[in-house]
Design brief:
Radius of gyration: 11 Å
CATH topology: 434 Repressor (Amino-terminal Domain)
Strand order of the largest sheet: 1-2
Oligomer: single chain
Structural class: mainly alpha
Number of strands: 2
Number of domains: 1
Largest sheet: 2 strands, antiparallel
CATH architecture: Orthogonal Bundle
Helix content: 55-70%
Distance between the termini: 11 Å
Shape: globular
Number of helices: 5
């Protein structure tokens, strides 16, 4: 199963939040932003930091998608 952060990316667009703003607000690195854009796993504490910064829950920013067969 893969993870998709498209919900977070759409939320950032809707709220007009840049990558740099999210990095500062959530105390995350540019490497985390890259992982988000590439659909790679990030540590749960980083998910928590993003959720606190965005005022949302993990369900609002990520979803699990089945691997294509």
């Amino acid at each position: 199963m893969a993870v998709s952060y498209k919900r977070l990316l759409h939320m950032m667009i809707e709220r007009d939040i840049s990558n740099a703003q999210l990095m500062k607000k959530a105390h995350i690195s540019a490497n985390i932003i890259t992982k988000l854009k590439n659909g790679q796993y990030i540590a749960l504490d980083k998910v928590e930091s993003i959720c606190v910064a965005m005022g949302c829950t993990p369900n609002d920013i990520l979803e699990f998608v089945p691997n294509p067969k």
